[in-house]
Model the fold of this input.
Amino acid sequence: MDEIKKVSAIILAAGQGTRIGKQKMLLPWGKATILERVIDNVLLSGVAEVVVVLGYQAEEMRGRLEPDLAANPKRSRVKIIMNPAFKEGISSSLICGVEAVGSDSRAAMIVLGDQPQIGPDIMRKIMKSFMNNNKGIAVPSFKGQRGHPVIIDMKFRPEIMTLKGDIGAREVVKFHPDEVLEVEISSQEIIRDIDTWRDYEEMKVASGA
Done:
């Protein structure tokens, strides 16, 4: 677990959710919202810190999150930041997140804000595999299909800072195949996110949320 403390998490939650038609991060998930569940899952994984990147309807989301974060000491490791350039694509949010990560972090775990079904056990498995290997990137895989969260060594920070448009960590993965460790995960949750109302309803039923 001490090694995991060298990993920071970046939760990307700035998107507009155009396919679902509203701010999906604030949709109910059990007694919380989708984004709150993701934050709690990440905290339970044991990371050093959690950086949440907001963009679309950021003030509404901040207003929902901050009172709960302030009232819960267990969430003291959460830092909320704003990406004013969120319309420029996911790369702008990734850059904001990397800029906010502590200088002593060895790596960043890139988490999608619309994957509340990925539990802390899966995240810990990916992080431990990363720490026990000499590769610079760890990517979870389900039956040959890669998913999230992805872990990237901070030695790639300069490269991440040059990304542009609607591309994220996968661009770094693409250009460094020899640095990639695939971690086999027996759960399809790593390849599923919430893009539509059907996705939302199906995942809620499957998870019992």
Residues 4-202 form a domain with the Spore Coat Polysaccharide Biosynthesis Protein SpsA; Chain A fold (CATH 3.90.550.10). The chain has a mean pLDDT of 90. The chain has seven helices and ten strands.
